Amino acid sequence: MTPTPIEAIAACIFALALLHTFLAKQFERLSRRFERHAGVFHLLGEVEVVFGFWAIVLVIAMALAVDGGAAIQYAESRNYTEPLFVVAVMVVAASRPIMQTVTRSLHAVARRMPVETHVATVWLGLAAVPLLGSLVTEPAAMTIAALMLAPQVFRPLMPSGPKYFALGVLFVNISIGGTLTSFAAPPVLMVANVWGWDSAFMFSNFGWKAAIAVVINATLATLMLRRHLVDGNPDGTQHDAPVPLPVVLVHTVLLAGIVVFAHHPVIFLALFLMFFGFMQAYERYQSPPVLREALLVGFFLAGLVVLGGMQAWWLQPVVSSLAPLELYFGAMALTAITDNAALTYLGSLITGIADETKYMLVAGAVAGGGLTVIANAPNPAGVALLKKGFTHETISIGGLLLGALVPTAIAGAAFLVL
Q1: Which domain covers residue 180, as residue numbers?
Q2: Cα(281)–Cα(251) distance, rounded to whole angstroms?
Q3: Are both 151 and 72 inside the same structural domain?
Q4: Residue 264 CA to chain centroid, in angstroms?
Q5: How much is the average pLDDT of 290-304?
Q6: Residues 61 and 87 both lie in one domain
Q7: Confidence class for position 232, pLDDT limits 50, 70, 90
Q8: Which of 94, 121, 181, 313 has the fewest beta carbons closer than 10 A?
Q9: Nearest-5° angle of CA 32, CA 33, CA 37?
Q10: Cβ(185)–Cβ(131) under 8 Å?
């Protein structure tokens, strides 16, 4: 398919954005070398800023190449529901009443497991919480798991090898852990209604396989981390006064409402604003909201929506031309440089696609969802919440890729062989 001039420009800008994600750490180094312009370099070194920045460049390029009205019309034509939802669900899921309830519940389970409590807590954070994502959605699961694991696993003193492997496991497990239902994983949402896939279909064809891979990945990571873990404040909440049950219930209801109305921004944004009002009323039971991190993630995902909307001219022919097995591995690789939801959406537009091809497309897309920051919508949330535990507060893109290879292979084998 021959691209239009603006599509060619958009593809070049998309390639520059991808290159920028790999060079983000270099901008952080430049910020320390050139202190006079440290602010600019630090901004460009924020991975969450990358796609939003290049989306702005694309809109400006469209305005210059076509006209300003067309550029504004294109920007306004994109669907920003998912970025808005991720912002809302991150902030609410990270609130003290929700986090305290989840972490103390998992700690109670960990005390009954036949290993040290702090080790069992880490295993549950890498296994149980990602599977919980099939109910509370993947972005919420990522937020809970990241905040729960950060004090134990993603801390500066943890050796980089085990830490990056754990990060790869977390990202892969979140990506596949949402496939037990038809509404929690973004790449599944893109095709569920079009192809008639309900939660029963997802569990019988994807969910149980994903659960096996999640358990294997979490066990491997915990074994690698075990000798580096310390038994201190395992539930992360013991220094906080208990939150009254009515406050917990209100937060839980608001979180559930945001999840249920995830496709209706007017409703979930109203609930989100109500959440802030309730936080203000009961401030003594709250922690500072993760608003900065959530807004950065929303900016990242909105940028991906703008940039990704112009890539169909080369992505769709690639997807439609591959045989099922080729598509499986192709989707796994392509999702690392696009976004698995965008990839499955393009697949849903292909008419007459065979059932085997549908399975291979979605399986490959979710299996590859942990390879890069942009591979799965919740990944930027994980990066925003965990980067303080890494050198210079920057997560290496290459380190994440290497850390995710083994868990990705295990997930890929589970979907292909089981």
Answers
A1: 81-417
A2: 13
A3: no
A4: 20
A5: 88
A6: no
A7: low
A8: 313
A9: 80
A10: no
- Alpha helix segments (H runs only) across 240-323: 245-260, 265-281, 291-308, 312-321
Task: State the pLDDT at residue 239.
Answer: 55
If asked whether residues 119 and 186 sit together in one domain, one would say yes
Mean pLDDT of the chain: 90
Q: Are 382 and 171 in contact (CB under 8 A)?
A: yes
Same domain, 67 and 100: no
- The pLDDT score that the predictor gives to residue 77 is 94
The answer to whether residue 82 scores a pLDDT higher than 50 is: yes
On whether both 102 and 47 belong to a single domain, the answer is: no
Q: What percentage of the chain carries pLDDT values higher than 90?
A: 65
Which residue, among 167, 184, 122, has the nearest Cα to 379 in the 3D structure?
Answer: 167
Of 60, 77, 94, the one marking the end of a domain is 77
Helices vs strands, H then E, count in the chain = 21, 0
Structurally, how many domains does the chain consist of? Answer: 2
Domain final residue pick, 42, 59, 77: 77
**Both tokens assigned to 141:** 């699961």
CA dihedral 381, 383, 384, 385 (to 10 degrees): 90
The residue type found at 119 is: V
372-402 pLDDT tens trace: 998 998 999 999 999 999 988 889 889 999 9
Residues 19 and 126 in one domain: no
57, 168: one domain: no
